[in-house]
Amino acid sequence: MTTRDIIPAVPVAFRSDGALDLNGSRAILRYVAASGNEGAFVLGTTGEFPALTVAERGLLTAMSIEELAPIMRVIVHVGAPSLSEVLALVAQAREAGSTEIAVITPYYLPASDAAMLEFFTAVSAASEGLDVYVYAFRNRTGNFVRAELMAELAKLPNLVGAKVSEEPLEQIAAYRAVVPEDFTLYTGADRDLGKTADFGAQGVVSGISSVFPKPFRALAAAAASGEAAAIEDAQRAVDDVADTVKGDIGRIKAAYALMGIDGGVPRMALDKPSDDVIAELERVVALYA
Fold first, then answer.
1. Least crowded by CB within 10 Å, which of 18, 45, 61, 254?
2. Is domain 5-211 in CATH 3.60.110.10, yes or no?
3. 187: pLDDT strictly greater than 60
4. Are 193 and 226 in contact (CB under 8 A)?
5. What would you report as the CA-atom Rg of the chain, rounded to the nearest whole angstrom?
């Protein structure tokens, strides 16, 4: 069955002093819960996971399950540079009630195919009862999951899919050619939602859709209808928000602020949106929020 799931990648709110803002984070989760999307991807790149402590990730996991799980799927990212930390985060997510988790490949130091297979074999063994997604993000981790490796990962118990960021759809197709039919593939390329099915993916994990769900819902509906004019119009709107937000966490949070949601500021070292960018965000909020 062809699906075009939209899984918003959810940001985390921080105060100007860098402290975690649980109230702001809850407000974001409640907005995402009302989006009509199929699920949510929490504590990933858009959630600035490298800047969170294990304890903070536990608090946010529990809050995400509380706010979202009654309404939609929740994929909790539990990736970290070391296997020991990942295993602690897996246990923490399970205790909070998670049923789906994602694990980014080892990062910072180069990892061979054999090392990554060993890493995910240990993750698989620790994930009984959980659905696990491989999070492949070569441009952030420095480690590429070749199709041959993805085929081996897909054989591991509990590994049910992959989220693939900043790779062309042709790479998705290369993975689809070597994994089982029921292995789920998501792209992280927001604007490619309408084309995912053509390359063997089941949808997108999209940071931009966390703040602008309406254009993405319209594109999914248009693609399902097959009406060329509707697809073109919906794609134009998705491209507009994608070109404006650019997947930038600071811009996403500024858009939330324009909508009256206190999404706070980034904790990581990111540029503050300029006045010109704010003006463009005001335009897209007026059109698409």
1. 18
2. no
3. yes
4. no
5. 18
